[in-house]
Amino acid sequence: MALSDRLLDAWYQGHPALGLLRPLEWLYRRVAQRKRATFLAGQGGYRPPVPLIVVGNITVGGTGKTPMILWLIEHCRARGLRVGVVSRGYGAKPPQLPWRVRAEQGAKLAGDEPLLIVRRSGVPLVIDPDRSRAVQALLEQEELDLVLSDDGLQHYRMGRDLELVLIDAARGLGNGRCLPAGPLREPPERLESVDAVLRNGAEADSAEGFSFQLHPAELVNLRSGERVGLDHFAPGQAVHAVAGIGNPRRFFRTLEALNWRPIPHAFADHAVYSPAALDFAPPLPVLMTEKDAVKCRAFAAADWWYLAVDAAPSTAFVAWFDGQLARLLPDRF
């Protein structure tokens, strides 16, 4: 088990050694609270001329943020809104920043998650660790009604009109402690100040937040682009399952729920792949996440597939979000 996996297990399942990290956690909390206090005091920062919605989390690890971003893009478009996206572009190495991501670019240039979003939706998207600069560059290139920020909840130099926070319902907030003693980027009380909390995998809405699910949609062949239904593999089919995401176990459980027998191969989040790294035995079909697929298409074998998933938020969230759009863009509704 990799060090990152052991640390995640400790954060979410408990370990007495984490107590040794409390002094570092105290320092981290002080820095996080100071940054937010500066933002609330209105000191510095960039306020875009159109509404900006942050879709982020306060935990380390996957919460279903990318599928939710894709849902928001399509939902806003269905209401006649012109929407763009900004992202940090983790792992991207463009020749300059800010950088406009295009579908024909590679993951090394654009980053895996931004490239996935652009290829799936065609949305205008700019990456830059300085998200305020990314927003300005995007608005210089496109006439938009609103901007979605893929993550950036803690990027307080960027003004925002709405904060949506995603949480994995099964894992929750772990031990409730901040980095490095726990998985939190900000203290738990930060949730009291956000506009909405969405709980991935929750069965129903509750006082803790709105529910949303990730539904498997179809299988897509990496080499040919062929799209097939979830009945393509017979029940009990053994597959090599590849996941380099924040919570690989969720992907493996999804394949099990589809009645396949995944042989799990967990990689680090944003892992860089090579043919040798995915040369598994015995020879079986390879199934991976869409995020991993954008990095493997160039050397994919004929029986490599990715599982496309769609976010499905609760009807209560949809109604609430439409109300927020009407509030932010009264001239459009």
Radius of gyration, whole Å = 20 Å
Low-confidence stretches: none
Task: List SSEs in N-to-C order.
Answer: HHEHEEHHEHEEEEEEHEEHEH
Percent of residues in β-strands: 15-25%
Brief digest:
The protein has 333 residues and is α/β, with parallel strands linked by helices.
In words, what does this structure look like?
This protein is an alpha/beta fold. Helices cover 29% and strands 22% of the residues. It has 9 helices and 13 strands. Strands 1, 2, 3, 4, 5, 6, 7, 8, 9, 10, 11, 12 and 13 form a 13-stranded mixed β-sheet that branches. Helix 3 (65-78) packs parallel to helix 5. The radius of gyration is 20 Å and the shape is globular.
Layout of secondary structure:
Blueprint: H1 3-13, H2 22-40, E1 52-56, H3 65-78, E2 83-87, E3 99-100, H4 107-110, H5 112-121, E4 125-127, H6 131-141, E5 146-150, E6 162-168, E7 196-200, E8 210-221, E9 227-228, E10 238-243, H7 248-257, E11 261-266, E12 286-289, H8 290-293, E13 304-313, H9 315-328
Parallel strand pairs: 1-5, 1-6, 2-4, 2-5, 6-7, 7-8, 10-11, 10-12, 12-13
Antiparallel strand pairs: 3-4, 8-9, 8-13
Task: Note the main attributes of this structure.
alpha/beta; 13-stranded mixed sheet; 9 helices; 29% helix; globular
